[in-house]
Amino acid sequence: MTTTLSFATVLGHQVLAAAGKRILRPGGKAATKQLFTWANFQPGETVLELAASFGESAIEIAKRFNVCVVCRR
């Protein structure tokens, strides 16, 4: 299937998704891992993820730390 995008109106994550990218991580995986450590998530907490894009990090946080994640784009 071919996807046609208008670069004048399309969101950046949609361009990357069309290219096959599912996870956007400024600073890479190492920075994300460090942020998880600093956050010190505790089971049962509620975590707000802003600009969740596809929600990949939210899913990982929920599974890894047994927290409830609320996403806002």
Q: Can you count the helices?
A: 3
| Share of helical residues | 25-40%
Radius of gyration: 14 Å
- Shape, please? elongated
Counted beta strands: 2
- Note the beta-strand portion: 5-15%
Low-confidence stretches: none
Give the biggest beta sheet. 2 strands, parallel
Arithmetic mean pLDDT: 82
List keywords for this structure.
elongated, two-stranded parallel sheet, 2 strands, 14% strand, 73 residues, alpha+beta
Describe the structure.
By secondary structure, the chain is α+β, with helices and mostly antiparallel strands. It contains three helices and two strands. It has helices at 12-18, 28-39, 56-65; strands at residues 46-50, 68-72. Helix 3 (56-65) links the parallel strand 1 (46-50) and strand 2. The two termini are 26 Å apart. The model has no long low-confidence stretch (mean pLDDT 82).
